[in-house]
Specification:
Chain lengths: 124, 484
């Protein structure tokens, strides 16, 4: 949950990065694409039942970190900031968090041969 | 089970019962009445199954049918009121929910009750009458509109065509002559409408009552419906008997326990003491709930929660509970208001749009080519999306994740893509137009906030369908709530 909140804050900050730094069109547009995605995945993963949605932020974080080197820009600072932000998002998305409630095995149970929600001992 | 009783599909009852028994050691069989040779079929199956208890799921007619088969058998009969007229269930104060009925089935008290033998062949366990109400039953049976609406329509027809009967009542070698609109031969006391026609009715006293409605009076009707005060004998006469014979000068409408039996000139009624064992609701419902929880133990804890409070197996809460859905519906409504406001601006109904932060940002975004990609403005589409959320989020009870999976899944689909579209629109604002729109951002935030709370309910429904599939039952029927 804390990791999701931190990623949400980073997502919010990303919205303002193009206004804070001169970063070139490609970089700023990339940030404007990544920011809402990070924000949305963070919000969705705050609910325990969809906690695994955080893994989408592994992708957005990795891409943001890499984009500083892949996308053309003549400025160093935006590269560093995007690299750091992306790394933070990436790492925070990997942090597992405890779930306090049971959801019959969650989404994965739909693909399991012996799902927890169909066990006689479910809810124990 | 009478599958057509009450003008409502019995899917909720059947689904609830199946879910309840899913992991219990008890075995049950379901017999659907067809209207043809039901009595003979029921006798055959009861002989084969040799049940400990029998449940009649339907109205008074269904109850009568099952009761006739079980008479003097000592097999307790439980009532699940699922018909248009559920007079006997009302008499016994039987719960109207599946859970409440199942509680009665397990922890109710079996007690012998008297029944009436009418004309030597018919059995009456509740109320039988000649005149107005029987006429109503006849009209209702002919009517193609079922349920309460059907009854209401026919009441007007009956009152319009009411006829005073001339009749003689022979009891204990004495004969009395009366003019009346209706005569009730009452084993019980209360009609399914709640009207207490027989205030001294007792199912165990070895007697039945005859109620003679000599005059139609609003005051008497109010007494029956609400006041529970003695009738005025000049208008409503009350007799007790072990046996009697009623003769009517001109043939009159006649019904027994909600079943119209044609016109008749003579009715003979005799009490048959302690002939049927009925299961009465537990006196202390809280205690029975506790007993049920204790008895079912840990092994079936999940099932207990599933059937009792709608908690899906393996879950700790019920995602269809109103506490879960109402916040979602409130923000969907706020989203709808925002989208409707933006729609009004896009359609030119208002000329200014509220924008506190980004100057002309909202105007630029709301008139951008992307907003006009479809035949209708994107805000209108958003408003329709929110309306769909509300239309699919409000209906259904707290068990809709298994009683109406189709509704829950449409709800989930409506919320999911709306959220996705909002994220894409948020991305398009700075990338394509270098502007922001405050209300569009708030609307996008609302749709994203709605995703997870909607998805948990959808997960519960999908897990339910998964279980149905694993058991080899029809997922299609389960999806439409027809089978569990």
């Amino acid at each position: 949950m804390v990791a999701a909140i931190l990623n949400l804050l980073i997502g919010l900050i990303l919205f303002f990065l193009p206004s804070l730094f001169t970063m070139g069109q490609a970089m700023s547009q990339n940030v404007f694409i990544v920011a809402p995605l990070t924000l949305a995945f963070s919000i969705i993963s705050m609910w325990e039942v969809n906690r695994s949605v955080r893994f989408f932020n592994v992708v957005t974080g990795a891409w943001l970190a890499a984009s500083g080197f892949v996308l053309p820009t003549q400025y160093l600072l935006p590269r560093v900031v995007c690299g750091l932000a992306g790394a933070c998002i990436f790492l925070l998305a990997l942090i597992p968090s405890k779930t306090k409630q049971n959801y019959g095995g969650g989404w994965m149970s739909l693909f399991q041969k012996h799902p927890p929600h169909d066990s006689p001992k479910s809810n124990q | 089970m009478n599958p057509v009783a009450g003008g409502k599909h019995k899917a909720d009852w059947e689904t609830g019962i199946r879910a309840y028994f899913q992991q219990l050691p008890h075995r049950y069989e379901l017999y659907n009445t067809t209207g043809a040779h039901d009595k003979e079929s029921l006798r055959y199956w009861l002989n084969n199954w040799k049940p400990d208890k029998v449940v009649a799921i339907g109205g008074d007619g269904t109850l009568k049918l099952v009761a006739e088969v079980l008479l003097h058998s000592d097999i307790p009969l439980c009532i699940f009121p699922a018909g248009s007229a559920n007079g006997m269930a009302r008499e016994l104060n039987v719960a109207t929910t599946v859970d409440g009925c199942l509680e009665t089935l397990f922890y109710g008290t079996p007690r012998k009750i008297d029944v009436l033998r009418i004309n030597g062949t018919e059995v009456c366990i509740h109320l039988s009458d000649i005149g107005l109400n029987a006429q109503l039953v006849k009209y209702f049976e002919e009517n193609d509109v079922r349920g309460k609406l059907g009854y209401a329509r026919e009441i007007f027809r009956v009152l319009w065509r009411k006829r005073l009967m001339q009749l003689s009542i022979r009891r204990d070698d004495k004969t009395m002559v009366r003019n009346a609109f209706m005569v009730v031969i009452a084993n019980a006391g209360v009609y399914g409408t709640g009207a207490r026609i027989n205030p001294i009715g007792d199912l165990h006293d070895g007697l039945f009552e005859v109620v003679i409605l000599r005059k139609l009076s609003v005051v008497e009707l109010l007494k029956m419906l609400f006041l529970n005060r003695p009738f005025n004998p000049e208008k409503t006469e009350l007799l007790q008997a072990h046996a009697l014979t009623i003769r009517v000068k001109r043939k009159a409408y006649f019904q027994v326990d909600g079943e119209y039996l044609g016109k008749t000139q003579q009715v003979e009624a005799v009490i048959d003491k302690a002939a049927l064992t009925l299961i009465f609701p537990p006196a202390d419902r809280e205690e029975s709930r506790q007993r049920l929880e204790d008895d079912m133990g840990k092994e079936t804890k999940g099932l207990k929660q599933h059937s009792r409070s709608g908690v899906p197996p393996g879950w700790d809460y019920n995602p269809s509970e109103w506490g879960q859905r109402v916040p979602l519906l409130v923000i969907a409504f706020i989203g709808f208001l925002i989208a409707a406001y933006l729609s009004a601006y896009q359609m030119g109904l208002i000329h200014e749009v509220w924008e506190p932060f980004f100057g002309r940002g909202s105007a630029e975004i709301l008139h951008s080519p992307v907003s006009r990609l479809l035949p209708i403005p994107d805000a209108v589409l958003g408003a329709l999306g929110y309306l769909t959320d509300l239309a699919t989020g409000i209906p259904g009870g707290t068990r809709r994740w298994y009683t109406k999976p189709w509704l829950v899944i449409i709800f989930g689909i409506a919320v999911g893509p709306l959220g996705l579209a909002s994220i894409l629109l948020v991305i398009s604002q700075p990338v394509l137009y270098h502007h922001w729109c405050t209300l569009c951002l708030i609307s996008a935030l609302i749709t994203v906030l709605m995703i997870s709370p909607a998805m948990d309910e959808m997960l519960a429904s999908l897990q339910f369908l998964h279980r149905v599939k694993r058991k080899g039952s029809s997922v299609w029927k389960a999806f439409w709530g027809l089978h569990a």
